Amino acid sequence: MWANETALLGSYVLSIGGIIGIMGGLLKNFMFWLPIGIYGLIFGIILVILEYPRGRKNKGNTAERRFQSCTATLLTKLPFVDNYYFRAIAYFIVCIPSAIIVPTLLGSVFVIIGSGIYLGAACHNEKWAPVSARTEVRSQSADVTQPPSRPPPRLPQNVNNPNQI
């Protein structure tokens, strides 16, 4: 869950840094920014698509993101997406070239941190699973308790003299 949030934030920052790298690459002094800016923008957009759907928690009480079902169906059909070892290694390797220039550096650092969190989750044998729709509805009437029918017990000294402290 935390790896997903970190990698998604990193992909947003990487996409914005890629746009800034492309704009800076149009200047004569920063022409070497252009290919890395394009790379950062493309990788950031692909990463947004891969990281947008949240995975199901072990308890199963995960809140879906808006329009998550569209990309979740795509991810269930792709191989190696549910494997966190693959995600951790792939994100780390693919993010290294975008750490060369300043505009994409912060986004790539976020994605590398997210890949480290994915590696930790993979060591705990976690896997990505899509969020399933809730079929059972909890009734609130079963949780309501009745008020007590008897007053709470009083100590004997307070019963005889209520003014005594």
Task: Give a structural overview.
The protein is an all-alpha fold and 165 residues long. The protein has helices spanning 2-25, 33-51, 68-77, 84-95, 105-123, 156-160.
Could you tell me the radius of gyration in angstroms? 26 Å
List the quaternary state of the chains: single chain
Distance between the termini: 54 Å
Largest sheet: none
Region (Disordered): 137-165
Organism: Ciona savignyi
Family: Belongs to the p22phox family.
Pfam families: Cytochrom_B558a
Characteristics of this structure?
single chain; 165 residues; mainly alpha; elongated; membrane; cell membrane
What is the compact description of this entry?
This protein is an all-alpha fold and 165 residues long. 54% of the residues lie in helices and 0% in strands.
How do the strands and helices of this protein lay out in sequence?
Layout: H1 2-25, H2 33-51, H3 68-77, H4 84-95, H5 105-123, H6 156-160
Helix pairs in contact: 1-2, 1-5, 4-5
